[in-house]
From TrEMBL:
<keyword id="KW-1003">Cell membrane</keyword>
<comment type="similarity">
    <text>Belongs to the THEM4/THEM5 thioesterase family.</text>
</comment>
<protein>
    <recommendedName>
        <fullName>Acyl-coenzyme A thioesterase THEM4</fullName>
        <ecNumber>3.1.2.2</ecNumber>
    </recommendedName>
</protein>
<dbReference type="GO" id="GO:0005737">
    <property type="term" value="C:cytoplasm"/>
</dbReference>
<keyword id="KW-0963">Cytoplasm</keyword>
<dbReference type="InterPro" id="IPR052365">
    <property type="entry name" value="THEM4/THEM5_acyl-CoA_thioest"/>
</dbReference>
<dbReference type="InterPro" id="IPR029069">
    <property type="entry name" value="HotDog_dom_sf"/>
</dbReference>
<dbReference type="InterPro" id="IPR006683">
    <property type="entry name" value="Thioestr_dom"/>
</dbReference>
<keyword id="KW-0966">Cell projection</keyword>
<dbReference type="Pfam" id="PF03061">
    <property type="entry name" value="4HBT"/>
</dbReference>
<keyword id="KW-0378">Hydrolase</keyword>
<keyword id="KW-0809">Transit peptide</keyword>
<keyword id="KW-0443">Lipid metabolism</keyword>
<keyword id="KW-0276">Fatty acid metabolism</keyword>
<dbReference type="GO" id="GO:0016020">
    <property type="term" value="C:membrane"/>
</dbReference>
<feature type="domain" description="Thioesterase">
    <location>
        <begin position="82"/>
        <end position="150"/>
    </location>
</feature>
<dbReference type="GO" id="GO:0006631">
    <property type="term" value="P:fatty acid metabolic process"/>
</dbReference>
Length: 201
């Protein structure tokens, strides 16, 4: 069976929740379904508005522990002529999966992500993404996502299963480049300071 026909979550090593994993629970303070989540950090390649060649991915809270997002492939995102680069498509999946942290109200980073490329995505196409959390086991958060072209009900182009790991703020402050950490922490807009470290795929 090829990667393009392997069902998501079908026994992938390290991505299958353990038997004692709990069902995910949407946090009471999570954004309401349909609410635009916005950028967590304006320099983020995935969602930041200040990145000229970034994805500018716009995610919305969904029902339960799910999110939807859209990303339009630009000429700067090409791999082969006229087609999206596979790494850019994985970045879009990763960003959408990372946005699930807003609904769980945890800071989490990608521990493992496996993707399937089902069909090519042309420049100019809008990728309609959905992600859902499937289980939680301690600090481990299991989730899956897919991206469709031609509309939210269009054919699947890409999909992924992921394991995110909950971390504390010092994961970023101890490991990030000091000048960016300082700039983010010293921003006079305290809402932006708080958001910069809340969600990081």
């Amino acid at each position: 069976m090829s990667a393009a026909t392997t069902p998501p979550g079908d026994g992938r090593q390290g991505l299958k929740p353990p038997p004692d994993a709990a069902a995910p629970v949407r946090h009471p303070d999570a954004p309401a379904p349909g609410e635009l989540l916005g950028a967590h950090y304006d320099q983020c390649f995935g969602c930041g508005d200040a990145q000229p060649h970034g994805l500018h991915l716009a995610a919305r809270a969904g029902e339960g522990v799910s999110v939807t997002a859209e990303f339009t492939v630009q000429p700067a995102h090409q791999g082969a002529p006229g087609l999206a680069h596979g790494g850019v498509l994985v970045s879009a999946l990763d960003e959408t999966l990372g946005a699930l942290g807003w609904l769980l109200r945890v800071i989490a980073v990608t521990g493992r992500l496996e993707s399937d490329f089902v069909r090519p995505v042309p420049v100019g196409a809008t990728l309609h993404l959905t992600a859902r959390c499937t289980a939680v086991a301690g600090r481990k958060i299991y989730s899956s996502a897919e991206g469709r072209i031609g509309g939210p009900e269009g054919p699947v182009a890409v999909r992924a299963d992921a394991l995110f790991v909950e971390v504390k703020l010092d994961h970023f402050t101890a490991n990030g480049r000091p000048e960016e950490i300082r700039a983010a922490m010293e921003d006079p807009d305290q809402v932006k300071v708080a958001r910069a470290f809340e969600v990081n795929p």
